[in-house]
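re: the backbone from monday

yeah here it is again, tokenized this time
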């Protein structure tokens, strides 16, 4: 039972700022209200957090001189500044420095070999290997095939209707099969 209470209190500590900012769902907020009323630990914790927030609000609204602000920003940036010398020559024992240098040398050699291989090997010209059917951007072939079908329909006579319909159906299926292999879907 005590573990359950500790877990609930721990969960409240995670959500206390959401609770104080009214950023919780109504049901959750009501649950925490009841919990704070019944739990001395969380009640004192929320009181402490409210005092800290009030104090922080007073201190953070205080005007700061530009020089002081700029000094704070400069100090923060210097802490985060990337120094290549520290990266290339890390601190540590001679053995650690040697291991790092060896790893760096191996990576450099492998990168150099990869670049040389990529520059000296013959690579296929992708433009030449693409089929002409894919390069038919204007659809000339498709347009001519549609025109053939239209002409065939115009030439149909009543006595050849069934035969012509079968031929047209076969022709349409063949066109669909061809178009499927070039489909990008």
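seq for it, each position gets an aa:
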């Amino acid at each position: 039972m005590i573990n359950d209470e500790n877990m609930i209190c721990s969960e409240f500590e995670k959500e206390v700022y959401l609770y104080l900012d009214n950023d919780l769902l109504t049901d959750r907020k009501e649950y925490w209200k009841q919990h704070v009323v019944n739990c001395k630990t969380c009640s004192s914790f929320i009181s402490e957090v409210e005092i800290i927030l009030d104090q922080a609000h007073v201190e953070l609204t205080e005007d700061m001189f530009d020089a002081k602000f700029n000094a704070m920003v400069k100090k923060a940036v210097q802490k985060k500044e990337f120094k290549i010398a520290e990266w290339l020559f890390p601190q540590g024992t001679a053995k650690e420095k040697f291991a790092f240098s060896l790893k760096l040398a191996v990576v450099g050699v492998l990168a150099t070999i990869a670049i040389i291989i990529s520059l000296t090997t013959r690579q296929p010209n992708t433009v030449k290997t693409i089929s002409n059917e894919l390069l038919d951007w204007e659809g000339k072939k498709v347009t001519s095939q549609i025109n053939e079908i239209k002409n065939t329909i115009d030439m149909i006579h009543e006595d050849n209707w069934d035969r012509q319909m079968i031929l047209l159906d076969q022709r349409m299926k063949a066109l669909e099969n061809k178009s499927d292999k070039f489909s990008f879907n």
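The longest helix spans residues 94-120. The chain has a mean pLDDT of 76.
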